[in-house]
Every structure is written in structure tokens, then in C-alpha cells.
């Protein structure tokens, strides 16, 4: 289900994190002071075991400086390359934390990999809202819809808000191609199908990326359109077939290293941004030596 208000121009402000190459967004209803934050970042010095909140504080300052009211803190998926700042932002600004209902698949998969005990709930209850495919929610008076777009992970969703769609890691800018599909539960065929679903939106639909790496030394960018992706995306051009895409994606993924922050990111993000704790209540992270 796609909302009927795709002609409404959502006000979007991007905040780039140069450490993880993540773009977080403040998305405002143009007819009210209500907003959502999408894909926030919590800073971590992994070697020092130190967490800070500079990026999250910038998002909070943006919301406060404009006198906005935060309705939602949205995660497009369980990120493997940065930690979510959702609880920190929620404590400061309120709002509900939402993610796709298939988070439960992620929690079950990585609960085993990280040898989490029975106290780790695998029912998504750490989040305020679990979105099912086609669920509609409101940012002020602006309807938004959550659409399943699996492939990078089973729980990936694209959020269509007015004339803007936030694609998570499903797509990159046209010269960046597509996301990897080799994490546990990922599937290159599903990723292709999800991309085709995104590209079935109107040509003028604005698409906002979760990451950009400045291919070939260009400046960082995060906004494009469906029409531009359909014509110029380097992994989808020339009418590439599903089978050709799967072959390309599988061969390319085999050459990629694991993200530097995958171990802390997964442990924190499957808990809605909360850092796990030991029996004495101290924040800790595990390093499984096999499984990924």
C-alpha cells in the first residue's frame, strides 16, 4: 500500500556522519511542527570502549532549534555499520521507536550467534512499534507508509513519506549501485525484487539514501529520484535481469570485508539502541570468534 499524498512535499534535512558514512534525517510535516527522525547514529570509539552522542546531539538541536515535536524515531533496518541513538533521542525528545516486524527474525538469528540468554527477548518488545508491510502511520497530519524491502536483511523497510522515500540500505546513489546481501538472512534475489518495487514508484519520487561513500572521489550525496536510479544505477542499468543481478551481487559480496562496527552494531541495534549489560549491570559487548 502506497499513500495517496505523494504530492505533499515532505521537508527533509540530512545529517551526515563521516565516521560511518551514514545519513540521518529529520523529516517534517510541511503543515505542522511534527517530525520524525530516521536512522540516527550513536558514536562509539570501539577500541576505547567509549560511547558519545555528538551526532545525536546535532539531531536533537535541529529539532529543538526549529521548535519541532518528535513523533517517531524510525529504523529502516538493523544496521550493521553504526549504532542507533534511539533511546538517547527518545529520552530527550520523546517519540515512538519503530522498526519492521521482521526484527524478530534478526533477533532470533543473532541471539544465537551472540549466545544471548533467555533474558534477551526475541519478540521485538524492545521497540514501541513493529511495522507490518503496508502499515500507515502519521507524522503530524502527514501519512507515511512502511513497505517491506528485504534482501540486505530480512527486516529492511522503505518508508514513503509524502514525495520522499527513505530506502535504508536497499539502494545507493546511482553511481554507488546497491547494498550487499551476504549477511545472515540476506538474499540477492529478494534485494532485486525490493529494488524493483522501489523503482515502481513515480519517476519524480525523491529517494533518500542511508549511506554514501563518495565513489570516485565525488562529494557526498544522499538524494536522488526514482527516475534517475532507473536510468543510471550502475548495478541495474541496461535492463539487467534478476539472474544477472544475483550473479553480480553474489560475486561482488564475496570480495567485501565485514563492516568495522558490525559486532557492536548488531548487539545494540537488535535491542533498539540499548547497550547490553552483564549480570552486574555493566555495559558490555561480546566478540564471537565464529558465526559471521
Structural domain tally: 1
The CATH level-2 architecture is identified as: 4-Layer Sandwich
User: Structural class, from secondary structure content?
Assistant: alpha/beta
Distance between the termini: 35 Å
Instruction: Give the overall shape, derived from the CA principal axes.
Output: globular
CATH topology label: Metallo-beta-lactamase, Chain A
The residue fraction in helices comes out at: 10-25%
Radius of gyration, CA atoms, in whole angstroms: 18 Å
Q: What is the element string, with H for helices and E for strands? A: EEEEEHEHEHEEEEEHEEHHH
Pick out the low-confidence regions.
none
Can you characterise this structure?
The chain is α/β, with parallel strands linked by helices and 292 residues long. The protein has a single domain (11-256), classed as Ribonuclease Z/Hydroxyacylglutathione hydrolase-like (Metallo-beta-lactamase, Chain A), CATH 3.60.15.10. Helix content is 24%, strand content 22%. It is built from seven helices and 14 strands. It has helices at 54-65, 86-93, 103-113, 188-198, 226-232, 242-253, 262-269; strands spanning 11-17, 22-28, 34-38, 43-45, 50-52, 69-74, 96-100, 129-131, 136-139, 142-148, 157-161, 164-166, 206-208, 223-225. The protein has a six-stranded mixed sheet with strand order 1-2-3-6-7-8, with helices on one face. Helix 4 packs across helix 6 (242-253). The radius of gyration is 18 Å and the shape is globular. The model has no long low-confidence stretch (mean pLDDT 93).
